[in-house]
Each structure stands twice: as C-alpha cells, then as structure tokens.
Amino acid sequence: MNITLIAASELDASLQATWRALQASHPALRSPYFAPEFTLAVAAVQPDVRIAVLEDGARVVGFFPHQARWRIGRPVGAPLSDHHGVVCAPGTRWDWLALLRASRLASWHFDHLPSAQAPQHGACITAESPALDLSRGMDAYLAARRASGVRSLGEFERKARKLAREVGPLRFEAHTQNAQVLATVLRLKSQQCRRTGTPDFFARPWTRALVESIGTLQHPHFAGRLSALYAGDQLVGAHLGMRSATVWHWWFPVYSDAMAPYSPGAQLLLHVAHAAADAGCGLLDLGKGDDAYKRSFADCSLPLVEGWVAARPALTFAWLAGRDAVGRWARTSALTQPLRALRQRTRLRMSARLPRPPALP
Prior knowledge:
By secondary structure, the protein is of the alpha+beta class. It has two domains: 2-128 and 303-326, Aminopeptidase (3-Layer(aba) Sandwich), CATH 3.40.630; 131-301, Gcn5-related N-acetyltransferase (GNAT) (Aminopeptidase, 3-Layer(aba) Sandwich). It has eleven helices and 15 strands. It has a 15-stranded mixed β-sheet that branches.
C-alpha cells in the first residue's frame, strides 16, 4: 500500500468525493466527525492539519486526517473530536506502524477510535458512545423504550404539557442562525468548565472560530445544528451540534435553571431526537460518557477504544507498563481512598437524577 502525506489545502473536489463515498460505505464512520467538511473546518483555524492518503495501486482506499506537533499526533479538532480514525471501506487493511511512519509521526493518541480500528500493537482500553436508534422513526423508538420499562418518558410528556400551560406554548427550532443563542451556548459551557474544574473548551480562539464556522455549513451530507427550545418567548434550552446524512451528534447542550421543575434537559433532547428522525438521521449519538441521562435515553451504543499507538512499539510497551503500575496504585493505595469514596458517592447521586447542564440567565 502506498501512503502519501498531503496538506488539507490539497484535498481537491475529486478527493473529497472519494472521501464521502468511503465514509458512506462504512456504518461505523457515518458520524459527521468523519466527513471531510469537519477536517477542512478545523484546518481553516489550525495550521497543523494533515491527511495521509492511502492508495492501493492507482485507487485511493483511505484517508487518515490528523494534527501533529513535534511528531506527536492527535485527532483533528481535539479536544472537540468525539470520533476519529481512518476513513475507509469495510475490510480495508493497513499497518498502523507504516501509517505513522508515512505520516511522520512518532505516535498518535486517540480516545474515540472505532473498536474495529484498534491498533494491534497499540495501547488500548475499551469505551462506548451511547446513542438513540431512530432508524424506525421516533414513535418506534419511544414505544421500544416504554416497552423496556423506561417510565420517565411519560413524566417528561406530562411536564412538557405543564410547561406549555404555565409558561407558554412550546416552540422548537431545529436550526437557527441566531447569534445570541450561539453566544449563550458558548458562554455557559465555558462557565460550566471553569466551575467544575475541567479544561474550558472555548478558552482558545480557534475552538470558538471552529464551532461558529460549522454552524454556517449546511450541506446534505454535513451541517451544523444550533437548536433552540422556547416556551412562549423564553428560551428553555439550546443545543449546538452537527449532523451527517444519517447521524446527528449531541454536542453542547445548555438549559434554563429556572425551568428545572419541567426537566428542560430532557425536553430539549427529545425535541432534538424528533428533529433528527424527521431529517432522516437513523442515529442520535450522545457521545462517550456514563451520564445517567444517557443511560436512560440510549438504546444502543458505538464501540470505541482509547489509547495510543507508537511508530516504535517499545514506546507503547513502556507506556502500558507505566499505566498498569499507576492504575494499581490508584486502585489500592490508602492515600487515594478518599477520592475513590467521593467518586462512588458522586456516581450514586448522578444515577438518581438527570445531570444539569449550565443554566441560562
């Protein structure tokens, strides 16, 4: 197999068409993250995006988009990348070590790689991305969840009627160009990150520029989705996401804290799910995570792996040995017992209620 490294600016219309055809041929790669538009949007705000083109003879059989600094590779758009890997047809084979060397990478780090692409010589642990199966439509999804014993759906419907009665008629916009709604989502997500001590997604100008540009892209095979739910004139919740032809990705939701008695987060998610099904998306991908609301709504999941692969296998073995030693210490040391107890208490609290994204003013 021949591998050529190109800049994102060299991805011409012909290569983009081949990329889309390969993406559409593989069920595990239908997320909007695997679309060429996502890579190109990142390349417009990040100078280090490169693409390895895999060829079998004269035929292009795969694309490996990535970013690289000091020969350390990472997914395109990280940390905002919820899916990444090699875009290729099912059954395509390649050697990860050869791919890294051709890409001039010492290593590539990943946390949302399709499990079928797990490197044979890499360091991987398993994960999954919960999702809603909407392939038979929203009504069929709701009926299946009720049949499986999920009783909260009826409660959410009751609260939606109460919200409309007490606050105002519900109105949902599947996609809006309202700059104020977008600014609210970004601001409140940043506040949430700072409040919880996690890295602020939008502290760097390039991340804000990226999501703003994605919101303007509207193609049949890739589109930004800025959704807003209103009760009367009041904004109940908003969500910034994106979709491909068949997958809608749940990305950055926020909702009004004042509307908490009406379960605004659930109301927002259900409206987005309806919009996704109406748009022909057979899957609403909730993204990796063990949040309680994801367990309630998800009826399927996408298998993933996270870890790294190195061009020199000895580096991977050293990382594995270090990780195993640190992991054993973290699980058994008396010094970490308070943290383990806090984690368990937090999990119990989270399993009892729907997590609350940041409040709208």
